[in-house]
Amino acid sequence: MKVTQLYAPTLREVPAEAEIVSHQMLMRSGFIRKATGGMYTYLPLAWRVMKKIENIIREEMDAKGAQEILMPITQPAELWQESGRWGAYGAEMWRLKDRHGREFCLGPTHEEMITALVRDEVRSYRQLPLMLYQIQNKYRDERRPRFGLIRSREFIMKDCYSFDRDEAGLDKSYNAMYGAYSRVFTRCGLNYRPVEADSGAIGGSGSHEFMALAETGEAELVYCSKCDYAADVEKAELHEIVAADEALQDVEEIATPDCKTIQAVCDYLKLPIEKSVKAVAFSSEKGLILCFVRGDHEVNEIKVVNTVGVPEVMMAEDSELVAAGTAGGYMGPKGLDSKKVIVIVDNTVMKMHNFCCGANKAGYHLLNVNPNRDFTPTYVADIRLIQAGDPCPHCGAPVAHARGTEVGQVFKLFTKYSGAMGAKYLDEDGKEQPVVMGCYGIGVGRTMQAVAEQYNDKDGMMWPRAVAPYEVIVLPMNTKDEASTKKAFEIYEALQKAGVETVIDDRNERPGVKFKDADLIGYPLRVVCGPKTLEQGKLEIKIRKTGEVKMLDLQSDYIKEIKEILETL
Ligand code: ATP
Ligand code: MG
User: Fold this and answer.
1) % residues pLDDT > 90 (the chain)
2) Measured CA angle at 68 (ends 65, 72), to 5 deg
3) β partners of residue 254
4) Which of 58, 296, 460, 504 has the greatest number of CB atoms lying within 10 Å of its CB?
5) Ligand 2 centroid, distance to 165 Cα (angstroms)
6) CB atoms within 10 A of CB 320
7) pLDDT (average), residues 2-15
8) CB burial class (10 A; 0-12, 13-18, 19+) of residue 283?
9) For the CA of 210, the nearest atom of ligand 1
10) CB neighbours (10 Å) of residue 86?
């Protein structure tokens, strides 16, 4: 490809709405253009990257025996009514009507359609297991589309579905997909972690999200410094911490004037913070919820929501606290009326002795409060937010904190859709059984942008070769110099012939401009051919990612050398 013909219009000014570096760079370097809110056109460079990612996905799906299909994007409402999701999906779903007034949606995902397909075609255990996938546009009218391709309203997803006879079969399919996903993201060059996405109901192994690590990621994660445990902070389980045994003391009320925070109380009373318990108050549709955790711990709202079984919680107002017989800043688990307030105590607090907490009376705290003897909560649960340095729930080593962007998710559906929609097969004994399903998604555009987010510097992007739009750019330094320009074209053609995806910057531009654009677009390898190096019988190559420069001998088999270097990038 000649740069004079390449449609990659660069931008000097990046639109203000491009908040993160990958979005800015993809815009600046002419990879993508916004068509309208949350919808983008992939220009030639981006589309080449997308196709490479898609092909990596295809290879890994096919290797696991999944077969590619293509379903319609437009789906009839009836299918979604059968599963119960037509109502549940809400405003994120794009809905439309045909000329007869029949309702449809643009598929945000395809569980319903594929379950209907399999229900009609699969009758016997002999047809299972089965894995089908497609790569296709998905539509979600996101509340806040942002970060370019990371959260858009129309995006390309690979979605795969597995069908098995039983849970053991599902486990096998799930593990196969988990392995395939690990290979896909590794081949794309991503620094990622698979995290447990589900702790409660299906036992921790029901779903994993593949998180590309990124400072700008929406998800907060923790990962173990020693084993391969990683989890979303919202979902990370925590074991209780058991305090050393000690003799129980009598409760004592003590004035703590002007002590607004637990730290202030502990400073005032000269107590270690681990001997204190603090409270966070929420209001919910079930009423006031008071949560108690150790003074140096934080409350995880999601765990509170799950414990009580409410759709959401909000910060409680002072008036609600007063009505429930307590006071902001002075809440404690002792003496609360369980008819007026839901009390959740973190399981670590239940293992503490003689702790200090609010007296439910403004200006006072209690000393030597003890669980069971002094109070009985409505719920004892793990409601703590995991923090960096906390022990890993699997091996006990300290966990580290990171942020991430979800690029893929694997999910055990069990019989959720097959049950609701009647996808059954006949087993060996001729008995009807529901098909056991799994679903597996990868965002192709989001993956591309996650790679760009991890591979860049101040000058531009640095694509790993496996997903780079082209592998090499050849730069003739002075198009007015005939000999070196001719040589540059020779090299360009020889590289192409050798199967290397190559671009030549044939513009009549200053070297500085060419260098800058090559760095911005992020070709893994740059080959410079100018009058000076030609005179010396040399060719200058530079590796984008490391900045390493090498001089190759024009008398040697430099094409082979270039190919060898590319293998390492
Ligand atoms: P999120 O929590 O980020 O909204 P999700 O969990 O709803 O994503 P899934 O239904 O699991 O997404 O979809 C599978 C994959 O599709 C995601 O892992 C992600 O890579 C991609 N994806 C989902 N929503 C979007 C979007 N709005 N824009 C781009 N890619 C998306
Ligand atoms: Mg997901």
Assistant:
1) 88
2) 150
3) 365
4) 504
5) 25
6) 18
7) 92
8) middle
9) 18
10) 18
The secondary structure element, H or E, covering residue 288 is: strand 287-294
Q: Is 152 in the pocket of ligand 1 (CB under 6 A)?
A: yes
Among protein residues, the one whose CA lies closest to atom 25 of ligand 1? 151
CA distance 374 to 347: 15
Between CA 108 and CA 138 the distance in angstroms is 5
CA of 194 to the centre of ligand 2 (A): 12
Tokens read off for 136: 């296709």
For the stretch 365-424, pLDDT in tens is 999 999 999 999 999 999 999 988 898 988 989 999 999 999 999 999 999 999 999 999
Paired strand residues for 539: 552
pTM of the predicted protein model: 0.86
Q: Of 520, 543, 499, 566, give the one whose Cα is nearest residue 528.
A: 543
Confirm if 467 and 455 have CB atoms less than 8 A apart. no
- Triad 189, 191, 195: Cα angle to 5°: 130
Q: Which token pair is 168?
A: 């053991």
| Backbone φ, ψ for residue 526 (5° rounding) | -120, 135
Whole-angstrom Cα distance, residue 343 to residue 258? 25
Strands 399-414 and 219-224: antiparallel
Is the sign of the CA dihedral 510, 511, 515, 521 positive or negative? Answer: positive
Distance of CA 423 to the CA centre of its chain: 31
What φ, ψ does residue 451 adopt, rounded to 5°?
-65, -45
Residues 6 or more apart whose Cβ sits within 8 Å of residue 536: none
- Among 203, 198, 129, 202, which residue's Cα sits nearest to residue 170? 129
Report the alpha-carbon angle 332-337-339, nearest 5. Answer: 135
3-state secondary structure 131-177: EEEEEEEEECCCCCCECCCCECCEEEEEEEEEEECCHHHHHHHHHHH
**pLDDT tens, position by position, 195-233:** 987 644 444 458 899 999 999 998 999 998 899 888 888
User: How far is it, in rounded angstroms, from Cα 183 to Cα 266?
Assistant: 51
Ligand 1 atom with the shortest distance to the CA of 443: 20
Is the CB of 406 inside a 6 Å radius of any atom of ligand 1?
yes
- Report the nearest-CA residue for atom 21 of ligand 1: 443
Residue with tokens 């403004």: 362
Q: With CA atoms as reference, report the closest residue to 188 among 545, 463, 501.
A: 463
